[in-house]
Amino acid sequence: MIFTREILQQTEEFAALCAASKVGISPVRDQSVDDLVESVRQADTQLGSSLRAFLDGYRRWYEFHLNIETEGRAGRLTPEDSSTLADLRTALESARHQFINTLTRRA
Question: If you ran DSSP here, which 8-state letter would residue 25 be given?
Fold first, then answer.
């Protein structure tokens, strides 16, 4: 699997744009993801909170993988690394499901 900062940024931007679209927000050119998340939160607290939880979980999971790749440890995880990765994945999946459920419930 390829892990780059650009892929992380694209995923964050896509999720934020999907949420913004649901609440009728048109992003401003060069608006940061954090600013867009805040705008979503102001328009819909539940959606903004679930978006933030998803983005935070995704970032933690992705950065863990990025560090493994950068350090050349891919395929050679310690038991502690494996446990951390499993915990990060569980938290990410929970946050992702909550975000998608909140996003799709919004008409």
Answer: P
